[in-house]
Amino acid sequence: MKFTFLGTASCEGVPALFCNCPRCAAARALGGKNVRTRAQALIDDDILIDLPPDTLYHFHTHGVEGHKLKHLLLTHSHSDHLIPKELHNRGPGRCHDMDVDILHVWCSQGSYDAIKAIAPREDHVKLHLIKPFEPFTVGKYRITPLPANHHKGDEAVIYLIEGEKTMLYALDSGYFYDEVFDYLAEHHVKLDFAVYDCSLIERVWPHIIGHMGLHRIRLVVEKLRELGVATDRTIHSISHFSHNGQALQSDIEELVKDDGYLVAYDGRVIEL
Ligand SMILES: [Zn+2]
Ligand SMILES: [Zn+2]
Ligand SMILES: [Zn+2]
Fold first, then answer.
1. What are residue 51's DSSP bridge partners?
2. What is the C-alpha separation between 160 and 174, in angstroms, rounded?
3. Which residues surround ligand 2, an ion (CB under 5 A)?
4. How far apart are CA 59 and CA 271, in angstroms?
5. pTM surpassing 0.85?
6. How far is ligand 1, taken at its centre, from the CA of residue 92, in Å?
7. 18 CA to middle of ligand 2, Å?
8. For 186-223, what is each residue's pLDDT tens digit?
């Protein structure tokens, strides 16, 4: 499995769209890994996770060939993860000589409704409504959506992705629900790789919904280890950074040097 972080920021990006705070100014001046776009990921070269406003830029910058994509997994409908109208670009007159006839879009209720509202051409894009804890197959992978502790009305999900390797993609989630921990333990999942939401970095919100920072990520990792879901071999990575917390690559790496977490940056590739 080849996993690519295409974007590693929360909704307004780093430097943020209209911001001139010291963190954005520093990111702007330093460039490189400190410049972060809205969260998106690619598995191998044909499974895309989320469709944020920076999708076209990601394809241009990281050599993603959109015509090879077979599947799009959506986490939820927030605008930093889904711009439904981009799907209009996968239709007659807007793309030609396609390797793949149909792009399969896997989405829970909120994303499904948002896409239906823009009336996509469904001859080239096929929507699949997914439900938490109901696995489906995408190529050589078994995908299980699990409920994200994020935006309840949206039915936001995180994804357990199992093939030769097993990974958890868990952006836009607060502390995991008990039933998520239970599912992973009861199904004897052993993670090779996990991606956690680190929007808050060092900040600690009193409530556990929405997003996580290092404080709650450490609690999640500890619990996964207790359950045997995470082992000594598991790579724990953090992403979805915000300028409201530390967002410079070197500063975040310093914060987690004792945890051993892998700090995502745009374009970072993990070969599992
Ligand atoms: Zn987000
Ligand atoms: Zn800022
Ligand atoms: Zn969100």
1. 82
2. 16
3. 16, 19, 21, 24, 243
4. 19
5. yes
6. 31
7. 8
8. 999 999 999 999 999 988 887 777 999 999 999 999 99
